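Feature request, filed as a ticket because there's no other form

It would be nice if the structure record came with a short human-readable summary line next to the tokens. Right now we just get the raw output. Example of a typical job, pasted below so the devs can see what we mean:
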Amino acid sequence: MTQDLAVEVLQDPSHGFTGVPHPRDGSQIAAVDEAPAQLGVRLLQTGTGLSILAIPRGTPTRDTAEWHEAPLEVSAEELLDRADRLLAIWRDQVVFHRTTDPGYGQRVGGHPLAESVDLSELRDLTDPLVAKLADEGFDLLHVMLDGTGYDLGRFREFLLGTLAGGQQLRITFNSDWQLPWPMLAVDPAECDSPWEAFLGHRHQIEQARTGYSWDQAPLGRRERAIASLNKDTTLDHVARAHEVQKLLDERSLLTVRTRGSELLAALSRSVLHEDVMYFWCHGRFVSTGAAGQVLAVQLSDTEDIDGPLVRRKRRSYLRSPESRFKPFVLLNACHSAKAAGPGRLKHLGQELIDQGADGVLAPQIEIPEVFAAEYAYAFLDRYMTGAHTAGAIGQWLVQRFAREFHNPLALVYSLNGGINTRLDLIS
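Raw output as currently delivered:
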């Protein structure tokens, strides 16, 4: 006689057979990668100003509402001005910090926080600075949510409580106005240390846009990942730069491009066979006239590669099921996570997302070359295994650089889409 057995599932590492079980090697990144709860936050323009919505999924709350909404009392212009101010503070007080009273082995007028990755010996400088930056990040979050409206007060209570709670979240911020979300902070006075106040330290975070994803031509199963290195050879001297190239060469079928014409030729094809696209070059703002500017990068030549040029090269392929452009992009160039405002010419990272990229990870301000190379090596070393998502790696790197090196610059990197993206050789 057959007998039905009662089975209780205590753990589900494959998330209902929808993902690859994470390795149980005791590493901290495995625990971060398994954070199941998600929070969606959306900023949108309404008839009278900005409104904010939040949709928790798997997040314990004291409220039974499925979603939360309130009108903001701050204008979009003030919010963006405050965001630019925060970025400027990070740029001036971290990257461009100058030595006026040098210690042993330091030089007057140097930039000690930009000249080394390991700032442990400068912790007497970095720890008070991080406390100040956390206060500034909390102030921006306070300004965004400040107001006297009843609904706004309830929303503020929910969101601040959720962000400051002990549960790690995967948070998607949907907005046409891009803020430096990882550099925002909860109240540092309520945290064990100022480092733990930053949203990018506490949670996995992405900036995203609303809209449907689109089907792209499948590549089938690949035995090895396909990657590209799009570089400025004048940066070959930077420590770790050659190691990053060697890593990609060993773990993928690698294409190296050093000229803008080579990159544009690849972008002009309907199908781009790349799982990872890495940029190692300079970024700069190019004037588009009296009214604005657009972010462009240059490889080893003088060709400016910007958003409008990429759009022109791929105009006939947009949302075509016969085309494919779906790489995860590490855009390691200064300012390249900066977004243009609504109605302006899109910067390069925004256009790559619109063309179908799985995600774009990039710095929001100038980034020291030595740190940028170290960050890229650490990120790609984990991403190329296929075992971890981009969002999990990004949060882990923030925590690692803070813990081991007392260096806050990993918070400068912002993820545009791709929080749940991992290297997958089946499509």
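Something like this underneath would help us a lot:
Confidence is low (pLDDT under 50) at residues 1-27.
Residues 123-145 form the longest helix (23 residues).
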